[in-house]
Write a structure and sequence with these properties.
With 588 residues, this protein is an alpha/beta fold. It is built from 24 helices and 16 strands. Strand 4, helix 6 and strand 5 form a beta-alpha-beta unit. The structure holds phosphoenolpyruvate (PEP) and magnesium ion.
Length: 588
Amino acid sequence: MTHVARRETAEIMVQGMSVSPGVAFGTVFLMKTDEEPVVSRSLQPDAVPEELARFAAAVDATREQIQTIQRNVREHIGSHDAGILDVHLMVLDDDVFLEEIREEIRERLHNAEYAVWMVSDRYIDALSRVHDDYLRERKVDVKDIARRLLRYLGGRRSASMAIIPPGSIIVADSLAPSDTALLRHELAGGLACDFGSPVSHSAIMARALEIPAVVALHDITCRVVPGETLLIDGNNGIVFIRPTAERIKTYDALMDRRHRLRVDIVNRVRGMPAAMTDNVMVSLRANIDAPADIDDVIKYGGDGIGLFRSENIFLRDGRYAGEQSQIDVYRAVVERMGHSPVIVRTLDLGGDKMLPDTPIARENNPFLGCRGLRFCLTETDAFKIQLRAIATVAVYGNLKIMYPMVSDVDELLRANELLRGVCENAGLAVPAVGVMIETPAAAVCADAIAPHVAFMSIGSNDLIQYAMAADRGNDLVSYLFQPAHPAILRLIKITVDAAAANGVPVGICGEMAGDPVMAPLLIGLGITDLSMVASSIPLVKTVVRSISMTEARALADEALKSRSGKDVQQNCREWLKQRVPDVYELIG
Ligand code: PEP
Ligand code: MG
């Protein structure tokens, strides 16, 4: 008797880690991001016409795909960005390039995949060696085209965001921030990933876009097939493969209740000040990735932008943004924010945020390598362009500059010197400068940094990663990612004390600032300037309006005496449950 392998049809529940709340139900769009190796095959001469036809079809399909992406980008992001894809189309229409590939197939009897790979590699190599910056950059376009052609020839459609059917549940091994930067709510109903952790940059972006997401599902990409149904419970970190009708009904009711509760909270605090019960005012600002995020900042009543992760405008295109396009972006943000402060963080590349073809793309320990300000101090031309663009826009509003990943005061002094030089040459005023405190070295030496800056902002995501020596994107060590750990609370306290002693304001813009459980503790530690994903503002404001400074200080004093981060976390959760039950239920 033959046994026929059948796909399971029963519902399966998979437990992962919650990174973005909410419930999503839809069909699977499978997206594996790992590249397959290119295989070389020798053709029989009579197979050549067929191989040439296969190559021609790949070129046509790739052209069509890029035109679709271009239409989408034009509609949703802007015509300037859409224009960038013209260069891709030019590569595809370059007859010399195409003919060289055809020659490899015709004369040397290589299969189409290998011919594409060989010829594009030759071009990339030649372009890498030219001196002209613009031409050198074109290797990125050749690389991208080659990747798309290879994906088509390998029978796999490119996992471009532009071809995702609306409302899909994206299932991926992991998502790079550059992938997530292209996600839009209409397309991605939800996200489920094999790998990841709550503070990876992709998770942060999913939260900003309010896309329910679960990560650390280990093998979800192997357990689903495209088109089958998936239900994501982003609050509890659970995914149901092929959910039953009953399950969907239960979740429908739950979603409905949560939605009503959230709308209630949002409406209740709209237009209200973030004032504690003893009238101490707290500033609740927003973290953004692009000008499009300002809609949410206004909707949720943010007091300005505490963190604009400017590198995302570079990552979206996979290349440096030119000076004018940076000016356009910063100006769009500043003008919409009126008099409210806007803090533009300078390029934070490195770590998990790579631009293709930069030297740092090949580091062994990228999070400990040439990241953030370190990178900018080696790529000074790009850094100066960004500094000048920010300084140019500063006249239109309340714009400030913030350097990421500072470990040593000398780095800050060198950056300030470059900024002064750029402003002097261009006849511009020097904007206010601040630093992120996100390395233990910066926290411990905050007293040495403070005299040279106008403000400091604690980047708790990285501060926790570096203090606990636990990769923020690795779910295997995410148990160490404890915001309330004594090591973290003490580093925050050292920073706050150094800032106060020097009369420098200090805020926080890591994810912990937007966590309603952690916010009272941070305020009690002396931080009354919190910056977070815009959708968290109403929840944190509700918490702020439910507590006095005296109470918050008592919570913080108690926490500083504790030796266990888990105990502190539990106490803070208990406080929230008792005092602000509706917010507690929502984040549950
Ligand atoms: C941080 O590290 O806390 C931070 C806000 O920066 P990012 O998450 O972009 O590294
Ligand atoms: Mg950081």
